[in-house]
Amino acid sequence: MKELKMLYLYPDMLELYGDYGNIQVLKYRLEKRGFNCIIDKYSIGDEKPDFKSYDIIFAGGGADNEQSILSEDLIKYKEDIKEAENEGVFFLLICGAYQLFGKYYKGVEGNIIPGLEIFPYYTEAIADRKKRCIGNIVLNVNLNGQETKVIGFENHGGQTYDIPTPFGKVLFGNGNKFGDTEEGFFKENVIATYLHGPLLSKNPEVTDYIIKHCLDRKYQEDIVLEPLNDEFENLCRKQLLDRFLNIDK
Ligand code: GLN
């Protein structure tokens, strides 16, 4: 049976606004199609994971405090993670994790939390602790030439700069910075984004993009995914898009 193996980094520290739901949705959409799904977890103190042996590596959002605690542990694995990324392992990184894969995160007090420096961007929080990009967000995203709207929820003080290839264009909400037109960082095998929600439950097309990408890579095929019944997901998406984008008004 074909299968995908996922690694969830720091589930006890990086899990905000239902980020774990992303793993559950991947598992659900794999199993519905008859694929197996293995989920391993890594936290501080655990044995070093074999990063390259995974198909998907996931890490969620976390507050500044958690980020500063785990940054040192994460950086121990910098070369292994870089190698896994170079070899094409898929990375799904939400908010706090998105920031930690860049050069650094500068907190409200000016404290620097070093990043993995795997991607070229950096993040700085603005001095006023009360000013945060908070709320629903809608993006226009191009997945393999297909335009789709991606819906989520953002809550970050960090403002991310120097992104060469953003995940999407902001149709509603803030994005990488207050009032930005762009959101996230995107490569064929990387989605790094501020979107919680959880991201994948609201956006089945993004989930299937990741699944197809990872199965194709692993089994050297051009797999056609069996369509699933997304009636409820689409109903939910329509409601949200109507509300946020005032479609039909
Ligand atoms: N601590 C970061 C910020 O506020 C990330 C928060 C999050 O992961 N939601 O910018």
Features:
249 residues; alpha/beta; 6-stranded mixed sheet; 14 strands; 29% helix; binds glutamine
List the helices and strands and how they pair.
Layout: E1 3-9, H1 20-31, E2 36-42, E3 56-59, H2 64-75, H3 78-86, E4 90-94, H4 96-100, E5 104-106, E6 112-114, E7 122-125, E8 133-143, E9 146-156, E10 158-161, E11 168-172, E12 182-183, E13 185-187, E14 190-193, H5 199-202, H6 204-219, H7 231-245
Parallel strand pairs: 1-2, 1-3, 3-4, 4-14, 5-7
Antiparallel strand pairs: 5-6, 7-10, 8-9, 8-11, 11-12, 13-14
The structure holds glutamine.
Task: Please explain how this structure is put together.
This protein is α/β, with parallel strands linked by helices. The protein contains seven helices and 14 strands. It has helices at residues 20-31, 64-75, 78-86, 96-100, 199-202, 204-219, 231-245; strands spanning 3-9, 36-42, 56-59, 90-94, 104-106, 112-114, 122-125, 133-143, 146-156, 158-161, 168-172, 182-183, 185-187, 190-193. It has a six-stranded mixed β-sheet with strand order 2-1-3-4-14-13. Strands 6-5-7-10 form a four-stranded mixed β-sheet. Strand 8 and strand 9 form a beta hairpin. The radius of gyration is 17 Å and the shape is globular. The model has no long low-confidence stretch (mean pLDDT 97). It binds glutamine. The site of glutamine has 13 residues, from helix 2 and strand 9.
